[in-house]
């Protein structure tokens, strides 16, 4: 399984990504080794995730979400 996810950061921004292991990936973000963005903007929690059967589907969803405005991203998990 693959997942597309949104992480809320300490300054209320949102980081979007995809992975095949949600827990392990979040731990990498917490340790500062997940992504350049989450090294500068400390992750607080995963606020949204969606499961997909293929990597391609998860990547397409990530690309779609990244095009959304901040308000539209908030609606995904509100």
Q: What is the CATH class designation?
A: Alpha Beta
Distance between the termini: 24 Å
**Oligomeric state of the chains?**
single chain
Biggest sheet: strand arrangement: 2-1-3
Low-confidence stretches: none
Q: Can you summarize the main beta sheet?
A: 3 strands, antiparallel
Mean pLDDT: 97
Q: Could you describe the 3D structure shown?
A:
This protein has helices at residues 22-31, 36-40, 55-66, 70-77; strands spanning 2-9, 14-19, 43-52. The model has no long low-confidence stretch (mean pLDDT 97). By secondary structure, the chain is of the alpha+beta class. It is built from 4 helices and 3 strands, in the order ββααβαα.
Task: Provide tags for this entry.
78 residues, alpha+beta, GIY-YIG endonuclease, three-stranded antiparallel beta sheet, 3 strands, 31% strand, globular
Summarize the structure.
With 78 residues, the chain is an alpha+beta fold. The chain has helices spanning 22-31, 36-40, 55-66, 70-77; strands spanning 2-9, 14-19, 43-52.
Which helices and strands appear, and what pairs or packs with what?
Blueprint: E1 2-9, E2 14-19, H1 22-31, H2 36-40, E3 43-52, H3 55-66, H4 70-77
Antiparallel strand pairs: 1-2, 1-3
């Amino acid at each position: 399984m693959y997942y597309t996810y949104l992480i809320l950061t300490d300054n209320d921004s949102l980081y979007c990504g995809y992975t095949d292991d949600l827990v392990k990936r979040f731990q990498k973000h917490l340790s500062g080794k997940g992504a350049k963005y989450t090294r500068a903007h400390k992750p607080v929690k995963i606020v949204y995730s969606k499961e997909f059967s293929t990597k391609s589907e998860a990547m397409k969803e990530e690309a779609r979400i990244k095009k959304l405005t901040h308000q539209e991203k908030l609606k995904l998990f509100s």
